[in-house]
Amino acid sequence: MGNSLTVFLIEDDEQILFMLNDFIKSRFPHFTVRTFVNGENALEAINEMPHVIVLDYFLNSKEPDTSNGLAVLAKIRANNKITRVILLSSQEDPSVAASAIKMGAYDYIAKNDEAFLKIETILHHFEKHLVIQNDTINKKLVMIFAGLSVLLITVYLLFKCI
């Protein structure tokens, strides 16, 4: 079992949302996956600090009063620079992809036959990165606590001699 990442899926097409959710859960059963049909609901839960967000570009295709993917991305980036956001869209215009990346998207994936496999590859990368990052943090913490232990013992011995 690998590390557990939290993934938010934000997609207004419920059929695609269901398929993507099923795909990710089948390949990463240890991940926590939350689904949202609009950006507003996802933004209400953003304090859960998901590791990854897969965000539809045309989020307002079914509900015109809701925010589109770029607007949601801007709101995410206003308060959260850490979460990786993957923009998923049927729009294959390179200028739209470039705008999304400039706004802070980690990647821009066109909805095609290979989209889910590309998402899987990215999630594997994030999972591996989390393992490396956690190992590095754990090693640093061990070194810090070892240093503190030596310091505390030295202070104790100094006070004991006084």
Structure, explained:
This protein has five helices and five strands, in the order βαβαβαβαβα. Strand 4 (84-89), helix 4 (94-102) and strand 5 form a beta-alpha-beta unit. Strands 2-1-3-4-5 form a five-stranded parallel β-sheet, sandwiched between helices. With 162 residues, the chain is an alpha/beta fold. The protein has one domain (6-135): Response regulator (Rossmann fold, 3-Layer(aba) Sandwich), CATH 3.40.50.2300. The termini are far apart.
Number of domains: 1
Annotated CATH topology: Rossmann fold
How confident is the prediction overall: mean pLDDT?
84
Give the spatial strand order of the biggest sheet. Answer: 2-1-3-4-5
- β-strand percent reads 15-25%
Per CATH, which architecture?
A: 3-Layer(aba) Sandwich
Which stretches are poorly predicted, pLDDT < 50 over at least 5 residues?
Answer: none
Number of strands: 5
How helix-rich are the residues, as a percent range?
40-55%
Count of alpha and pi helical runs: 5
Secondary structure category: alpha/beta
What is the first-to-last residue Cα distance?
53 Å
Can you identify the CATH superfamily? Answer: Response regulator
Biggest sheet descriptor = 5 strands, parallel
State Rg: 21 Å
H/E element order: EHEHEHEHEH
